[in-house]
Specification:
The chain is an alpha+beta fold and 693 residues long. Helices cover 57% and strands 8% of the residues. It has 26 helices and 9 strands.
Length: 693
C-alpha cells in the first residue's frame, strides 16, 4: 500500500499540467467524448488481441503438448492450469475484478460518481484475457466495458472534470467498448443509456454517441470493417411466423430468467464450500474442462458456435445439449471466481434456443417457416433482453450484426414479449442481482428528473459577508450580526479566500475572553468546498455526510477565488421551486445480503496504528468486506462512515472468503507502516486530486 500511494503521488504529479486545462465552452464535452472514444477504441482492440494471443498460446501450444502426451482428454486441464494465476491476480491485487464487470461499472456510476481506480481496468484486462484465452466460458464484452469505462474515468479525473461529467465519460467508455467489440455503435450507445446510465437526455446521448463512433472507427481502422459475429440475412417468410416468433419470445423469457438464477445459484454454492480460495476455482474449472472435452463449443466466447447456429449448421441434438451446458459452463467459470462477461454467453444461449425451436417449427410447417438460423438470430436478442432487461440494446445489436432490416418485425415481437414476461416473473436482472448484493438497488426506475440538471451555480448565493484575516473579535461580532447568517468568509490580500468563521467558533472565542484573537486565529482554513459546475445532488450528499449547513463555492481552477456560498436554505428553496425530489443523484440502498460463508476478522487498533484518528469512510477495505461492529471501552459503536477510529478499538470485519487474504494484508501493512514510522498505509486521496491506484 505505501508503494501504491507513492506511485499514485508520482503519477498525479506527472499529470499536474492537465489539471489546469481549460476546455472551450461548448466544445469541451465534444473534445472529452472524442478522447474517451480514442481510449475505449484502443483499449478494446488491445484486450481482443490479448484474448486471441492467450487462446493461441494455451490451446494451440500448451493444449497441443498435453494432448500429444496423454491423449485428447488432457485438454480439460488447460482451464485448471490457467485459473490459478487468474485467482492469484484477483485475490492479491483487485478483488473487484472478479466476475463479469458491468455491475461494477454500474455501481461506480450509482454510488461513486464514476470513480474507477486505474488498477481495476488494468487488472481486469489481464485476468479476463487469461480466463477467456484459457477456455473460460465467458465473453469479453463485460471486461471490455469495465476496462474502457475505467480508462475513461481515469481520463476524467486527471483533467479534473466535475462528477456528472466523469459519470458521462464512464458511460461513453462503456458505449465505446461495446461498439468496438461488435462493430455496432448504435447498440453501444443504447447499452450505455439503458444499462449504465438508465436515463435518457440530450446531453447524455450526445457525449455517448460521439464516444461510440470514435471507438468504432478506431476498431475498424485496426481490425477491419467486419461485424463481431458474422450473421446471414434472413427475411420473414409468412405472416404465421409472427406467432412463432412470439412463442420464441415467451420461451426466451423463461430461459433468460433461469439463466440468471443459475448463475448466482452456482456462485452461492461455491461460496459455502469449506475449501480454500484456490481450491474452488480449480474444482470449477476442472468441471468446465470436462464439459469442454464433451463439447468444446463451450470454451471461450463461443462466437464460432453462434455463427454456426445462425447458419443452421448445428444438429438439433447438439443444440439441445449446448442450451443446457453453456449456462452451466459459464456459471462454473464465474462462480469459481474467474473473470469474464455474460453478454456473449447470453447471445450463445439465445442462439441455441432459437435454433432448437426453429428446427421444430420447420418440422411442423416446412412450407411456411423460414430456416432455423433465422430463429437463432432472433433468439439471441430475446434471451439477452430477458436477462439484462435491455430491449433496445438487444434489437440494435442483432440489427447491426445482420445489417439487414428484414427481420425487424420478428425481432421487435420476440424482444418485447421476452422483456415483458421476464419483468413479470422477476424484477431482477443479470446485472442488478450482483449490485443488490453490494448494497445498491437499481430495480426501481430513476426518480422523475425534477432538478437532476441543476448545478451549484444556479443555486448558490453571491452575497457573502467578507472580513479580512486581521479582523478582531468585536468587528467579527458586528459583521456576523449584520449578515444575519451563521458564517463569515475570511479573505487575505488581493481578495484571496482563506477560510470560514462560523458563529459557533466566534462564540467559543468570545467565551475565552482573549481580546487579541483575530479572524485568522479562529477560521477554518481548509473547509469542505464545492465548484459552480457541481451537481446539486453532490452538495446534498456532502451536507448530509458532514452535517454541514453551508459550503463555500470556489473556482475549479483557482480554489482561493471565492465565488459564493451555498446553504441548506438555498438548496431547499431551489427544490421547492423545481419539485419535491432530487432526481438521479441517489438510489435507495438495498439490504446488504448476508455474506454466505463469510470469514470474521478481529483487529485491535494499537496506539501507534496508522488508523488512529481516521474516519471509517477513509479506510478503503477490499471489495467483499465490511466493518460490522466496533467495541470501544466496553461499549458498542455503530460503524458509520463519520466515526473516528480510536486507539484500543476492536474492529470486527466480515469478509467473503475470496477477500480474506486481501483484508489481512491491508491490516498487516498498517501495522508494519506504523512500526516503521511511515504513517498510515491507508492514505485517502486529496479531494481535488485524482488517484491512479
Amino acid at each position: 500500500m505505501p508503494l501504491l500511494a507513492a506511485q499514485s503521488a508520482r503519477l498525479s504529479a506527472r499529470f499536474d499540467p492537465l489539471y489546469s486545462i481549460r476546455l472551450p465552452t461548448g466544445v469541451g464535452p465534444f473534445i472529452l467524448a472524442v478522447a474517451v472514444g480514442v481510449v475505449a477504441g484502443f483499449g478494446s482492440v488491445a484486450l481482443q488481441e490479448m484474448v486471441e494471443g492467450f487462446d493461441a498460446l494455451f490451446f494451440d501450444r500448451l493444449g497441443g503438448k498435453l494432448t500429444s502426451l496423454a491423449g485428447d482428454w488432457a485438454i480439460l486441464f488447460v482451464p485448471v492450469l490457467i485459473v490459478v494465476p487468474v485467482i492469484w491476480l484477483i485475490t492479491r491485487f483487485v478483488p473487484e475484478t472478479r466476475g463479469h464487470g458491468v455491475p461494477e461499472v454500474m455501481r461506480a456510476v450509482e454510488t461513486q460518481g464514476g470513480r474507477i481506480p486505474l488498477r481495476i481496468p488494468v487488472t481486469k484486462a489481464i485476468a479476463s484475457a487469461l480466463t477467456i484465452g484459457g477456455g473460460g466460458s465467458v465473453g469479453r464484452e463485460g471486461p471490455i466495458v469495465q476496462v474502457a469505462a475505467g480508462l475513461a474515468s481515469f481520463l476524467g479525473r486527471i483533467t479534473r472534470q466535475p462528477q456528472d461529467t466523469v459519470v458521462l465519460m464512464v458511460a461513453g467508455g462503456a458505449a465505446g467498448g461495446i461498439a468496438a467489440t461488435f462493430n455496432a455503435p448504435i447498440a453501444g450507445v443504447f447499452f450505455a443509456l439503458e444499462v449504465i446510465l438508465r436515463r435518457f437526455n440530450v446531453r447524455n446521448f450526445t457525449l455517448v454517441v460521439v464516444s461510440a463512433v470514435v471507438a468504432n472507427m478506431i476498431a475498424i481502422a485496426i481490425e477491419g470493417d467486419r461485424p463481431g459475429i458474422v450473421i446471414p440475412d434472413y427475411a420473414l417468410e409468412s405472416a404465421i411466423e409472427i406467432g412463432l416468433y412470439a412463442l420464441l419470445g415467451l420461451a426466451a423469457a423463461f430461459v433468460g430468467v433461469f439463466w440468471l438464477r443459475l448463475l448466482y445459484l452456482v456462485e452461492d454454492i461455491f461460496e459455502v464450500l469449506p475449501t480454500s480460495s484456490y481450491t474452488k476455482p480449480v474444482v470449477a474449472m476442472f468441471a468446465l474442462g470436462a464439459l469442454g472435452f464433451w463439447h468444446d463449443e463451450v470454451f471461450g466466447t463461443g462466437f464460432a458456435a453462434i455463427e454456426q447456429a445462425t447458419l443452421g449448421e448445428i444438429a438439433t441434438g447438439t443444440l439441445a445439449i449446448l442450451l443446457v451446458i453453456k449456462p452451466l459452463a459459464t456459471s462454473l467459470t464465474l462462480g469459481g471466481g474467474a473473470s469474464g462477461g455474460v453478454f456473449a454467453p447470453s447471445l450463445f444461449i439465445g442462439a441455441m434456443l432459437g435454433g432448437l425451436l426453429g428446427a421444430a417449427f420447420v418440422e411442423l410447417a416446412p412450407d411456411q417457416v423460414g430456416p432455423s438460423g433465422a430463429y437463432a438470430v432472433v433468439g439471441m436478442a430475446a434471451v439477452f433482453a430477458a436477462a439484462a432487461r435491455a430491449p433496445i440494446t438487444s434489437l440494435f445489436i442483432v440489427f447491426e450484426l445482420t445489417r439487414d432490416y428484414s427481420l425487424i418485425l420478428p425481432l421487435m415481437t420476440a424482444v418485447a414479449i421476452a422483456t415483458a414476461v421476464a419483468q413479470i416473473i422477476t424484477r431482477d436482472t443479470i446485472y442488478s442481482i450482483k449490485l443488490a448484493r453490494r448494497g445498491v438497488d437499481v430495480t426501481e426506475e430513476p426518480a422523475a428528473a425534477v432538478v437532476a440538471d441543476l448545478t451549484v451555480a444556479e443555486t448558490m448565493s453571491t452575497n457573502v459577508p467578507l472580513v479580512t484575516e486581521d479582523t478582531d473579535l468585536q468587528e467579527l461580532t458586528l459583521a456576523m450580526s449584520r449578515s444575519r447568517g451563521t458564517v463569515l468568509a475570511v479573505i487575505v490580500e488581493e481578495g484571496r479566500f482563506r477560510g470560514l468563521v462560523s458563529a459557533t467558533d466566534l462564540t467559543a472565542a468570545l467565551e475565552r475572553t482573549d481580546q487579541n484573537l483575530v479572524a485568522s486565529d479562529i477560521s477554518v482554513a481548509s473547509p469542505q468546498r464545492v465548484y459552480p459546475d457541481d451537481q446539486l445532488g453532490h452538495v446534498v450528499e456532502l451536507m448530509a455526510e458532514g452535517d454541514l449547513r453551508q459550503l463555500p463555492v470556489v473556482a475549479r481552477w483557482d480554489e482561493r477565488r471565492l465565488l459564493g456560498m451555498i446553504s441548506q436554505r438555498d438548496v431547499l428553496r431551489q427544490v421547492a421551486r423545481r419539485g419535491p425530489r432530487l432526481a438521479g443523484t441517489t438510489r435507495r440502498a438495498a439490504p446488504v445480503r448476508r455474506l454466505i460463508g463469510a470469514v470474521q476478522i478481529e483487529f485491535t487498533v494499537e496506539q501507534e496504528s496508522g488508523l488512529v484518528g481516521r474516519e471509517l469512510r477513509e479506510i478503503q477495505l477490499p471489495e467483499g468486506s465490511i466493518v460490522t461492529i466496533i467495541h470501544r471501552q466496553g461499549t458498542v459503536v455503530i460503524p458509520r462512515g463519520q466515526v473516528t477510529v480510536e486507539a484500543g478499538d476492536q474492529l470486527t470485519i466480515l469478509a467473503e472468503p475470496v477477500a480474506e487474504a486481501a483484508v489481512r494484508r491491508v491490516l498487516a501493512e498498517v501495522v508494519q507502516a506504523a512500526d516503521a514510522g511511515t504513517g498510515t498505509a491507508i492514505e485517502p486521496s486529496p479531494p481535488s486530486a485524482p488517484d491512479s491506484d
